[in-house]
Amino acid sequence: MTMNRRTLTSAMAAAAVAGLLPASVLAQKKLVLGFAQVGAESEWRTANTESIKSAAKDAGIELKFSDAQQKQENQIKAIRSYIAQKVDVIAFSPVVESGWDTVLREAKAAKIPVVLTDRAVNSKDDTLYVTFMGSDFVEEGRKAGRWLVEKMKDQKGDVNIVELQGTVGSAPAIDRKKGFEEIIKADPKFKIIRSQTGDFTRAKGKEVMEAFLKAEGKKINVLFAHNDDMAIGAIQAIEEAGLKPAKDITIISIDGVKGAFEAMIAGKLNVTVECSPLLGPQLMNAVKDIKAGKTLPKRIVTEEGIFPMEVAAKEFPSRKY
Ligand code: AHR
């Protein structure tokens, strides 16, 4: 008789029931990971979702995936449903930093390990999660600030900056602002004259930049956008206002998505600080390690670079997201 995958699995199940299979074979049960994603707000997030889905497939891990549409209550609901389904590991990228302790305690009580990916929580109890893997957002803000300080070192008068912040209360918005300000405060000529959230989306980035331009017009020298999508939206607003992006207004953003490289090659964006969304393979390794009883470091930081427009054309072909 020829055995296909299904008959083989049924035969194994029958053998297992009869107690004929060794523990090592039975232990090969597929691990189940519940992942509560923030949403699909940016090119970065889409790449992050793809990375997680494809890495789960490659690792043979069953993935239960939910999209919270940038709402914390949806993420909490998803996490509770993973607890009810008794998944092996829960991972999520918290949309905002605070308000997670209750649901994380529920996961802990159910003995389900939790991994934070991409964004941190600001809980005082770090036993509520196993590890946090992702970028150092404060350092990303510093890199953006250092690039600007160097670029404007010979500028004598004020440098008027407008800032497009990410989602209010999110780790990347809080930390990138902090890192950027930490660097530019060394020289009082750098002035943030407007700062508002664009929620990490192109549409909001454009809308808020239009308002900045209406209020400040040609006074604006620099735009610091907390992600590429908002910068790309803002570039449209700048062009519609009859100004030249990257020339009349210096533009700095964060992520390093392909869209940003295209904008740099077109001469419309000055620089992007890298923030890698390709966390899938690392996450799947962590899931396996946790289930194998290994101890993981509490913090796993992603290594990243910075790409000014001068190198964009050369780097573009090797970009993975
Ligand atoms: O948390 C990472 C941030 O979230 C990225 O910079 C942004 O593009 C995304 O939406």
Automatic annotation (TrEMBL):
Q: Name the source's superkingdom.
A: Bacteria
Pfam families hit by this protein: Peripla_BP_4 (PF13407)
Q: Which UniProt keywords apply?
A: Signal, Sugar transport, Transport
Coiled-coil intervals = none
Give start-end of the signal peptide: 1-27
What Gene3D superfamilies does the record point to? 3.40.50.2300
Limits of the Periplasmic binding protein domain? 38-294
Where does it reside? Answer: Cell envelope
InterPro entries documented for this protein? Peripla_BP_I, SBP_2_dom, TAT_signal
In its keyword annotation, does this UniProt entry include Signal? yes
UniProt key word Signal: yes
**CDD domains, per this entry?**
PBP1_galactofuranose_YtfQ-like
Family recorded in the similarity comment: Belongs to the bacterial solute-binding protein 2 family.
What protein name applies here? Simple sugar transport system substrate-binding protein
Gene source species: Variovorax ginsengisoli
Task: Tell me the organism's taxonomic lineage.
Answer: Bacteria, Pseudomonadati, Pseudomonadota, Betaproteobacteria, Burkholderiales
